[in-house]
Design goal:
One of its GO terms (molecular function) is transferase activity. The structure is a single chain. By secondary structure, the protein is an alpha/beta fold. The chain folds into three domains: 4-164, Spore Coat Polysaccharide Biosynthesis Protein SpsA, Chain A (Alpha-Beta Complex), CATH 3.90.550; 171-308, Tetratricopeptide repeat domain (Serine Threonine Protein Phosphatase 5, Tetratricopeptide repeat, Alpha Horseshoe); 317-362, no CATH class. Helix content is 48%, strand content 17%. The chain is built from 14 helices and eleven strands. The protein has helices at residues 17-24, 42-46, 62-71, 89-101, 171-183, 190-202, 206-218, 224-241, 244-252, 262-274, 278-290, 309-320, 324-337, 342-362; strands at 4-10, 30-35, 53-55, 77-80, 85-86, 108-117, 123-134, 141-142, 148-149, 155-164, 300-301. The strands form two sheets. Strands 1, 2, 3, 4, 5, 6, 7, 10 and 11 form a nine-stranded mixed beta sheet that branches. A hairpin with a 5-residue loop joins β8 and β9 (148-149). The longest helix has 21 residues, at 342-362.
């Protein structure tokens, strides 16, 4: 059986570090904690789990810190996590089985990363990460922010997910790192350019971000998923700026780079719903329900668009159109995904009352 070193970089993570380590402490053979300048109880909490605690002087470079943590690992494989990550019980069991059966010729294990959840705790946004890597391959992290672990060789995709629950963000810090790079004459890669535009968006610099998204979309060498994400984020920027026509055109542009996908089709539907054009919204939501989930391994996907979300929105749209039977039908389907959701249960109650009233009036 392989041995695994958990490598983490942390700073002021006293709120979440125990949750993370409690879910993986029995799955790994050693825990490496690299602290980049905590002023809270982070290091004290880490000491309850490991003696391998190291300090790294922060130099505005996440990759440098992660590579430093990897250098302290001694296991056959390295698992990396952030402090606000954790493994749910089912994923812990799957991980335990993987550790017992993993072919040592595998260079990297790619896992799902649940980065957002609905009120019922179901993942709504899933991306892929090379999460477990062979130490002897000496894979390196690149990029100072939104760092990326470059791997090659034999890569497998495991049915294991790491869950993420962010408790604090620092988008100004990330933006300042990019601005610092550019001020020093640095040239951003295509991937860095997209992340820079997203940081601009998060900080409200919408027009500047739109210009970068357009550059990415126009670049024939850009990856199709980067173009799709640029279209989506550009639509968000135009929405915030009140540019309704440009918002819609940005969403429709996604069809240039992939077959219709439910996540983007739902965004178009919601555009019409938000503008009270409920008949058009219904048509787009109905289209979303007919689309199959992509079989190819995409590195980012909004999963709720293939499950309950179109049905729940159709409840609202059909309700506005006075088509209560259709609204009730889709609410029942939404209820099958979320049988205990109070909002869906309340919809059921209201719709049943409205339907009884209508039938009594028609009698």
């Amino acid at each position: 059986m392989i041995t695994i070193s958990l490598c983490m970089i942390v700073k002021n993570e006293e709120q979440v570090l125990s949750r993370c380590l409690d879910t993986v402490k029995d799955l790994v053979d050693e825990i490496i904690i690299v602290d980049t300048g905590s002023t809270d109880r982070t290091k004290e909490i880490a000491a309850n789990y490991t003696t391998h605690i190291f300090h790294f002087d922060w130099i505005d470079d996440f990759s440098a810190a992660r590579n430093y943590s990897f250098r302290h690992a001694a296991g056959d494989y390295i698992l990396w996590l952030d402090a606000d990550d954790w493994l749910q019980e089912s994923d812990q069991e799957k991980f335990k089985a993987l550790k017992q059966t993993l072919d040592p010729n595998v260079d990297s294990v790619c896992m799902d990363y649940y980065v957002a959840f609905d009120p019922l705790g179901q993942p709504t946004a899933v991306i892929k990460r090379n999460r477990l890597v062979k130490r002897s391959r000496q894979f390196q992290w690149h990029d100072p922010v939104h760092e990326q672990l470059e791997v090659e060789g034999r890569i497998i995709f495991a049915d294991i997910a790491v869950s993420h629950g962010r408790v604090h963000t620092n988008t100004e810090r990330n933006l300042s790192i990019y601005e610092g790079l550019l001020a020093q004459g640095g040239i951003l890669s295509s991937r860095q350019l997209l992340q820079y535009a997203m940081e601009l968006t998060a900080n409200g610099y919408y027009e500047k971000a739109i210009g970068i998204y357009q550059t990415i979309i126009s670049d024939p060498t850009s990856y199709f998923e980067d173009k799709l994400q640029s279209c989506d984020r550009m639509a968000h920027c135009n929405h915030e700026l009140g540019n309704k026509e440009q918002e819609l055109q940005s969403l429709l542009k996604t069809f240039n780079y992939d077959i219709p996908r439910a996540d983007y089709v739902c965004r178009i539907a919601y555009y019409f719903q938000e503008n009270s054009d409920f008949e058009k919204a219904v048509c787009w939501y109905q289209l979303a329900l007919k689309l199959e989930k992509p079989k190819k391994r995409l590195f980012g996907m909004n999963t709720m668009a293939w499950t309950w979300f179109p049905h729940l929105q159709l409840v609202a749209c059909y309700g506005k159109l006075g088509q209560l039977e259709q609204a009730y039908e889709h609410n029942e389907i939404a209820l099958s995904y979320a049988p205990n959701d109070p909002n869906v249960l309340n919809n059921k109650k209201l719709l049943e009352a409205a339907l009884r009233k209508r039938r009594s009036e028609d009698a």
